[in-house]
């Protein structure tokens, strides 16, 4: 038991510090459990090799994988973007309407499409709503993320956490979630949470991205943008732009070359520099001064706005923000080691990382999930970035390539995936058999299928109908999520088998001497919400559910009520930007600070803790 707690502590430290990617941490946990388990060196964790690797074959893991593919198919039809644009037309310049549009689209849709891709799709849509409506994106992007979490609690398939919690509930209580098991409570949470965001939440959000400022001013990079003229005797004359950067060895990028009133932009790596060329550089003042002192370059001026970097006579380049999601090849890499510029003919002018704006020595900084890059690139490069799952471009492409003709197919497939799980075919068949006397109707009970089976069938149908191409299904899977699930599922098993859950349950159950059952339930909700703020929501479910069930058993409460409290708390992580991936998606584009999530999320978490606990008591009872 002590060894298991040690592994849990190690996992928590790694999750919080991000010394390793979360999926790698999960695999490390799995390996430690097996090495120290029944088939390993010693038997401290009681986890055999088969149990240690069971996460890969677990129905929750396979279901999440299938749902990610289905969500990708829906997004490729453009239906979410189309709805978003219609809501944008409704929103106009009225902030209340913009909030209603944002929440009204992201909330309900997240009940049927995994909420992570929903937010990834809607970040550029909502950003455009803000810019066109003369509103700061900071007022809309946190509400977008929070509303998607509300919506994720409408159905079993709204978020991967629900699917994992259903699997754990089936193992501990023999009570998996049905498709609409907690929809009634989910609707209450959606309505109360939405009302909070529209009336109170947005007033607590500062305008981190001022309405009138452009990217150059927003990122405060004016002093890092310099125009210089190449001297006749400069050592970089006759070299290419790429060679010049290496030759003078300074932390800078040559963004543009201007010669005889003609501007050359990306790709300019092989452009030969001549005497008299005007170079637009990204470099700090000290670096530039060094080359002025060496008489290599002569200062000319500084562009102070995005318009000066994107003049009317050169419309073939643009500045965009690019968010780095989980699973991107950039995560863990630096700009230099990833060869980002060479791959996309794009230059990074600055980037935001965990609320900090980085403008110098960027090439060596490790990129983390949720970092937002300010990129200058030609439109075709921006389109390539938009179409690549490694990035979320916070700007909608002018002519998006959607398969809108496949919307009916995708909608029918999702209806089938949900319908075959939700409809009580056994009861329908029995009723028809009793009314008609035809025994064949009893066979209808066989049509009630697990969500894993219907989701996999939906994947096949998506490919067969052309909604997805066969090669796209592999890109649609967020493999870090799959490895995370596969790695942490055995940790929950070890917590149960070694008696760790019993011990923790006994400690928490002691509060029952001072608190009513409803109070203990509320404590579990708050504790899960706090834990989820610093580690993965899926990891918090695996750790907290066995303890919650054991506590409920010891105090004579309804264990399923405690399962629901933990599930809702883990899927509504409002307190920090790192607890839930949708928060990371909006962190950079909204220009938020860490404290903004606490300012808006803490009152919301407290409000929903009361609403959820009372809702569980009303719908299911706690005793």
Automatic annotation (TrEMBL):
UniProt cross-references to InterPro entries, sorted A to Z: Cit_transptr-like_dom (IPR004680), DASS-Related_Transporters (IPR051679), RCK_C (IPR006037), RCK_C_sf (IPR036721)
Keyword Zinc recorded: no
Keyword entries, A-Z: Membrane, Repeat, Transmembrane, Transmembrane helix, Transport
Protein topology in the membrane: Multi-pass membrane protein
Transmembrane recorded as keyword: yes
Location, primary (coarse class): membrane
Domain RCK C-terminal positions: 213-297, 307-391
Protein name: SLC13 family permease
